[in-house]
Amino acid sequence: MSEKKLYDVIIIGAGPAGMTAAVYTSRAKMETLMIEKALPGGQMTKTEDIENYPGYESILGPDLSNKMFEHSKKFGAEFVRAEVKEIKDTFPYKTIVLSDGAEIQAKSIILATGAKHRNIGVPGELELSGFGVSYCAVCDGAFFADQELVVVGGGDSAVEEALFLTRFASKVTIIHRRDELRAQKIIQKRAFDNEKIEFIWNHVVEEIKGDGMVSGVVIKNTQTGEVSEFPCNGIFIYIGMDPITNYVENLGITNQEGYVVADEEMRTSVKGIFSAGDLNEKKLRQVITATGDGSIAAFSAQTYVEELEEQVKEMNLEV
Ligand code: NAP
Questions:
Q1: Do 312 and 92 form a contact (C-beta atoms < 8 A)?
Q2: Cβ–Cβ under 8 Å, residues 229 and 216
Q3: Domain stops at, among 237, 265, 290
Q4: Which of 237, 264, 285 is where one domain is finished?
Q5: Model pTM?
Q6: Is 232 a catalytic residue?
């Protein structure tokens, strides 16, 4: 990061929403800083094939992440690895507080921190995490060659990742709490057609068993209440996502579930703070919707900064 402490726009999060916003703001000659605590790419980095992003019939998530990251810096946006602890709604410039206590100022802010995987919250999950409990098939799948795996969940992620795991595992059993999948039909069909995939319907995982390494799961029938044990070598959990918005709790811009409420222009209820991507309250969360949000947020931030600069001039405030 440069010594300069005031940016036109600071983008928090370098997933598809944040990186797209950076392309737009820096190309519009706004001084742009992206702050990301992990690898650029967000959830894309943990996705195998992406086949619904126009222009690429099929592309590996990490490859699309790298391409977007290079693109996001092409017009001069800066990038820093850091964690944001808090945002202060100061005037005329916002203040971003990092986890090490450092403060940076910005004329506008775009929130783009996305969402993170949800835990089941059962005994054994935390203890055996990394020892057979995983939330990332792309990262850990290869460790389970010829072994028997369980995938929990019935959405796009669970079914797509179960399909991916069949490259390594001898058998993948999807345990779902209902008798119908939520995943898109095209993905469902691939799973039903795959000989290595089996289903246990109407069951939830109550405990993950293992002495140092996962050896099985305790499952409960949601209809009869019957409890049984199911042996497996690993368990991949895909039961949805939670938004990463803890650092904006003080701003009062989130709904009951923690998602940011933004309008069609990606404006939050705090002037100068915009929000784009999976952390927003909305129905469809995809790479393409995140990039769309990012471009809109960038344009809104640009308009806001132009107005703010006029206001600062009129009020004779120091820039
Ligand atoms: P999701 O669509 O919210 O699905 C979560 C699944 O987990 C649901 O089947 C849900 O069951 C189940 N579940 C939730 N809480 C549970 C619990 N406590 N115990 C057991 N099961 C539980 O989440 P996702 O699959 O991670 O997808 C997130 C978003 O990303 C979605 O909008 C999805 O469309 C998108 N996505 C898209 C693609 C793609 O287009 N290729 C790929 C991945 C993800 P119920 O069905 O009973 O609610």
A1: yes
A2: yes
A3: 237
A4: 237
A5: 0.85
A6: no
Amino acid at 17: A
Any catalytic annotation for residue 211?
Answer: no
CATH number at residue 310: 3.50.50.60
Residue 139 is among the residues annotated as catalytic for this protein: yes
- State pLDDT tens for residues 267-295: 999 999 999 999 999 988 999 999 999 99
Q: How far is the CA of 6 from the centre of ligand 1 (A)?
A: 39
Structural domain for 158, as ranges: 133-237
Check: CB of residue 197 under 8 Å from CB of residue 162. Answer: yes
CA of 213 to the centre of ligand 1 (A): 26
My answer on whether 67 and 200 are in the same domain is no
Q: Are residues 225 and 255 in the same domain?
A: no
Of 49, 89, 136, 156, which residue is the catalytic one? 136
- In ligand 1, the atom with minimum distance to the C-alpha of 241 is 26
Residue 293: phi and psi, rounded to 5, are -55, -45
Query: pLDDT tens for residues 52-90?
Result: 999 999 999 999 999 999 999 999 999 999 999 999 999
Distance between Cα 239 and ligand 1 center (Å): 5
Q: Give the residue with greater pLDDT, 95 vs 319.
A: 95
Judge if 108 and 10 occupy the same domain: yes
Total domains present in the chain: 2
- What's the mean pLDDT when you consider all of the chain? 95
Helix axes of 61-73 and 16-27: crossing angle, nearest 10 degrees: 20
**Which residue's alpha carbon is at the smallest distance from atom 29 of ligand 1?**
285
Query: Alpha-carbon distance 278 to 259, whole Å?
Result: 8
Regarding the beta carbon of 240 and ligand 1, being less than 6 Å apart is answered yes
The string of pLDDT tens digits covering residues 160-191 is 999 999 999 999 999 999 999 999 999 999 99
Whether 39 shows a pLDDT value over 60: the answer reads: yes
Residue 42 in contact with ligand 1 by CB distance below 6 A: no
Q: What's the 272 CA to ligand 1 centre distance in angstroms? A: 32
